[in-house]
Design goal:
Chains A, B: InterPro entries: HTH_MarR-typ, MarR/SlyA-like, WH-like_DNA-bd_sf, WH_DNA-bd_sf. 2 copies of one chain form a homodimer. Chain A is mainly alpha-helical. Chain A has a single domain, classed as Winged helix-like DNA-binding domain superfamily/Winged helix DNA-binding domain (Arc Repressor Mutant, subunit A, Orthogonal Bundle), CATH 1.10.10. Chain A contains 6 helices and 2 strands, in the order ααααββαα. A two-stranded antiparallel sheet of chain A has the order 1-2. In chain A, a hairpin with a 7-residue loop joins strand 1 and strand 2. In chain A, helix 2 packs across helix 4 and helix 3 packs across helix 4. Chains A and B meet through helix 1, helix 2, helix 5 and helix 6 of A and helix 1, helix 2, helix 5 and helix 6 of B. The first copy, chain A, binds a DNA duplex through helix 4.
DNA sequence: CCATATCTTATGAGTTCCGTACTATATGAG
DNA sequence: CTCATATAGTACGGAACTCATAAGATATGG
């Protein structure tokens, strides 16, 4: 029964589990936040997700968006219809491939969204003030690596069986 | 135009924005992951959310769960019906208040879920090995504070207008 | 004992998701 | 050039879902 620094190892594992649990809680809380925001904007959760992906990953075609959002192409038609009708996006006919369509987010209602996220943004700013620059860098890197971990895990789940 | 350490301040703000952007990306990625996992288990996103809340926050009544998940009580009836039919939960008639029902998660299918999350858990473990104990503590604390920030932001959004 | 409040669920209307099929366009072989 | 095949987006229809309303059962306070 070799135990080199048993307390440290145990503490380390416990902290790791805490982090994973915190990530679960955080995901739920953010999902709930988006649900509330979506409610105020008369948008389904899925609509807001698509809008979020679109505004971060630039103009996309419906099929590319469907892939990134894990949705059926036909499902996106309905979503895009809703978003277009409400003035969130426009469908641009591409000039190269005339079958293709590129979805573009209109900037008009951006402030409206920003205002609704303001409570969360403010609360986050409060949290951030308590950390040094170096610590913030560390955290940013960690979060980016988590996202990457999620992406690869997702890939594994998407391809097999 | 007073500029005390202008570079630091700018870098600090930029890192803050990076963190918020990373949080957005992470949320999307985790939502997508849950969507895939849910697909394999024949569960809707909402169903899995409820299951997640239930397994973390212990046995709950439908109304308490509805509040925590931001759903209409009547919606939960349908969700709970599905979850019960598929053997995920049971409805226990409370002995105190006989109007009330407490939802309990059955442990039977826990391993099935764990296996599906394994790619993500493994990827996370890989990420975690690159940090010192002190850094992990810092990260855990940060994530918990983010969750708390989400909770309060949510509260503000829920109550007003 | 009665009025009122609370917890859950049945019902029904409106909406959404997605499998399939269809149109339009692009690409490649002969 | 012509035709077969592949691809992008969407229309359509069935099945399923969400939620407002209301009903049924139980609790609580006067």
């Amino acid at each position: 029964m070799e135990q080199t620094q048993p307390g440290d190892a145990r503490h380390r594992r416990r902290t790791g589990n805490e982090i994973k649990a915190a990530l679960r809680d955080l995901r739920i809380q953010l999902a709930l936040l988006n649900h509330q925001v979506g409610g105020k904007l008369a948008l389904k959760d899925v609509d807001l997700d698509c809008l979020d992906v679109l505004s971060r990953n630039g103009p996309l075609t419906p099929s590319a968006l469907a892939r990134q959002a894990g949705l059926h192409p036909a499902t996106l038609t309905g979503i895009l219809d809703r978003l277009e009708r409400a003035g969130w996006i426009v469908r641009d006919r591409a000039r190269g491939d005339r079958r293709s369509v590129t979805i573009r987010v209109l900037p008009d209602r951006g402030m409206e969204v920003f205002r609704l996220y303001q409570p969360m943004i403010g609360a986050m700013d409060d949290v951030l003030t308590d950390y040094t620059d170096a610590e913030l860098d560390l955290i940013a890197g960690f979060l980016q690596r988590c996202t990457e971990a999620g992406r690869t895990a997702n890939g594994k789940l998407t391809q097999d069986s």
